[in-house]
């Protein structure tokens, strides 16, 4: 699948995401055919001509000044990640852009040993969301990555193609949207990436939901936050996540999950990992304690104490 430059798609997606009233534009007597800002709205807000905005979206302008880029970024309410992406999209192309070879990333043995010693779920991801290593707690929380062929160990691929993913994530839609946005952010327009292009092509064809999220052209970088999980053994619970860049690794990250100390989620995670450790195959027995789905850290914990 050939990855387009994305300039037109990016700019039109950002225009569509803005409510004209939120930027002080008066209502129009003529119904808008599409949501969001029109080219003339962006031109007025950025102080450039409508023709310039049209030519920019079509990639028919030369070098764009920093002043114009800042004005357009302000008009489109871009965050720092989006501003950097816009600059990459309009950066002068080299005569022969470098193309990343599809070389399989490998986690350093020392980092593998580090996560194996961690009691809570942790994994190492490559720049295209490959699962390069995971500890036993992580495999219990989501799925047994080690049982998959190496080519299929990818969090985005599993998220959209494995039915169990929709059960494991209590807020699957939110996780799916940010995962696709992270893949978008991982793409450097100046350096084509064969492996990333193949992954996007596969998921676009296999999952209409992925295709829809990809077309939204959102950008996101996982740094820290919370995620809600569900496991038949213990019900719903919430974990904090932190994604840490690994130096000198070619874009690998260490993702660690922890519960709030003393919370019901901490107790549920402890019980889940305990049951998994006691099962013959090292995974939790989903039939051990039948549970109904409930809110994370809720009150329906009668089997926990």
TrEMBL record:
It comes from Gryllotalpicola koreensis. It holds the Pfam family MLTR_LBD. Residues 36-81 form the HTH cro/C1-type domain. CDD domains: HTH_XRE (cd00093). PANTHER family: BLL4672 PROTEIN (PTHR35010:SF2), BLL4672 PROTEIN-RELATED (PTHR35010). This is Helix-turn-helix transcriptional regulator. Residues 284-305 have a biased composition (Basic and acidic residues). SUPFAM superfamilies: lambda repressor-like DNA-binding domains (SSF47413).
């Amino acid at each position: 699948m050939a990855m387009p430059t994305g300039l037109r798609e990016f700019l039109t997606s950002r225009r569509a995401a803005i409510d004209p009233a939120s930027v002080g534009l008066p209502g129009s007597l003529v119904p808008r055919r599409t949501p969001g800002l029109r080219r003339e709205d962006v031109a007025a807000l950025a102080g450039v001509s409508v023709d310039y905005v049209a030519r920019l979206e079509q990639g028919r302008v030369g070098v764009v000044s920093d002043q114009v880029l800042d004005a357009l970024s302000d008009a489109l309410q871009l965050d720092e990640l989006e501003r950097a992406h816009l600059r990459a999209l309009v950066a002068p192309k080299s005569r022969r852009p470098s193309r990343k070879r599809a070389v399989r990333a490998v986690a350093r043995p020392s980092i593998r040993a580090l996560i194996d010693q961690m009691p809570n779920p942790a994994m190492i991801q490559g720049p295209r969301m490959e699962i390069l290593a995971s500890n036993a707690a992580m495999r219990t929380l989501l799925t047994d990555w080690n049982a998959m062929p190496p080519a299929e160990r990818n969090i985005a691929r599993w998220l959209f193609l494995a039915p169990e993913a929709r059960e494991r994530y209590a807020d699957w839609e939110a996780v799916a949207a940010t995962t696709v946005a992270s893949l978008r952010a991982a793409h450097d327009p100046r350096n084509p990436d064969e492996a990333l292009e193949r992954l996007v092509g596969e998921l676009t064809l296999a999952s209409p939901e992925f295709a829809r999220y990809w077309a939204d052209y959102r950008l996101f970088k996982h740094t820290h936050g919370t995620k809600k999980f569900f496991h038949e053994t213990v019900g719903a619970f919430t974990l904090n996540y932190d994604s840490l860049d690994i130096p000198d690794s070619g874009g690998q990250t260490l993702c660690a999950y922890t519960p709030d100390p003393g919370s019901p989620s901490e107790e549920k995670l402890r019980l889940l990992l305990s049951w998994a450790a006691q099962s013959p195959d090292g995974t939790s027995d989903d039939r051990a304690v039948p549970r109904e789905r409930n809110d994370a850290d809720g009150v329906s914990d009668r089997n926990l104490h």
